[in-house]
Design goal:
3 strands, three-stranded parallel beta sheet, 104 residues
Length: 104
């Protein structure tokens, strides 16, 4: 079976559209002869705007998942998760000092 490395920040327990794409893609890859290997951020170091622990039930036990620490620049928003950029954040406008630094 061929192997494919998928590097993604958004992986369960993160929720949202970005997670769905990679989760479902990796779920069906083995049906076409590909063995997905996932490299993602350790959830303790991530700033997910949405979490959905139910998505973990959709994971195949055969999928290898490796997580790594990362610098979490969005931790300054931990009190107000609504400020964490979501999919399509490149079009977001945040004229605060923190927003200008994080979105540049």
């Amino acid at each position: 079976m061929n192997k494919v490395l998928i590097v993604t920040y958004y992986w369960p327990p993160s929720g949202g559209a970005g997670v769905q794409r990679w989760l479902k893609f990796s779920k069906y890859l083995p049906d076409f002869g590909w063995d997905p290997i996932i490299l993602t951020v350790d959830p303790e170091f991530a700033a997910y705007p949405v979490t959905d622990f139910s998505l973990e039930a959709d994971l195949s036990s055969s999928v290898k998942i490796y997580s790594t620490p990362a610098i979490n620049y969005f931790r300054i928003y931990k009190k107000d998760k609504s400020k964490i950029p979501t999919a399509g954040f490149a079009n977001s406008v945040d004229n605060s000092f923190k927003g200008k630094i994080l979105l540049s």
